[in-house]
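Friendly challenge for the regulars: who can give me the structure tokens for this chain first? No prize, just bragging rights.
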Amino acid sequence: MSMTNVKRLAVTPPMLADFPEAFAPLVQRGVEIVFNRGVYPMDAAHLAAFVGQAQAAVIGLDEISDEFFARCPNLRIVARNGVGLDNVDLAAAARYGILVTVPLGANSTSVAELALGLLIALARRIVPAHNTVQGGVWRRVQGIELAGKTLGIVGLGCIGKKVARRAQAFEMQVIANDIAPDLTFAREHSIELLDLPSLLRRSDVVSLHVPLTPLTLHLFNAEVFGLMKPESFLINTARGAVVDSVALANALDSGHLRGAALDVHPVEGAIEPLLAGRDNVITTTHLGAYTAESLYKTTEMAVDSILQLIDGRRPDGLIAGCDTALEQ
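First reply, four minutes later:
Bragging rights claimed.
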């Protein structure tokens, strides 16, 4: 792979401007760093105008389309500031000879910790208790213990594994479902691997840690909710569209599900009206990877991938399917 001259880097997530030290190695190479100080995520037209003639871009939640690549002719690499790729047209990237990288594992601790925090909040009904007492009413609400309960993890990848180990520290039994399971990890941590229906029937809590793909779009629908253990909880820190919001609302209305915690939503920046105003539903604002530590690590890894491209090396975290760009 030949060396690539990168003169300009466009960074779309505004919060990354808080970590100038992470970009220092590129500045030392003479790369101009331009930060987005406005609306985020940007629409297609503003995104293409912002990236413009840059050779590299660090992208967050912005939608990366064929049109975007066509309007940014100098672009050689898109370094994602997160691990999700549902917002990137990878086929288009390959056609235009653009590398796409992700900071694998960099945000897994932050997301896993949030998933456990949401689990505790659901089990002990912390949010409704807080809202009640803040409203001037002193009323205790009864919760449940996690010890002895079964946690079903759908997607036993980097994040799912960290959730499993933390849940076991709470004396929970952990079972899992994964299309390509790590058999060694499961054996070492005494995690039973099951098909999805079997996992749903046994789990007191189901936690989702899968990417959004055609196979996982509305994976949790009315039929799947019907298989879940009565009065169980659902936690989603993966992608909003993995869950059919109407079906979830119906499962909550019927009492079949005890509650749900959703950090991600079908439309970024909004919650589903059907799920608003419920004291058994926690809705957060896509906070999974939003910690100082995670943001710094993902930014550092994005910078490293750009440095590797400049030096003519294969970038870490390069997504399969974009390899042909290495030959161009």
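The CA atoms of residues 70 and 137 lie 58 Å apart. The mean pLDDT is 95. Your move, everyone else.
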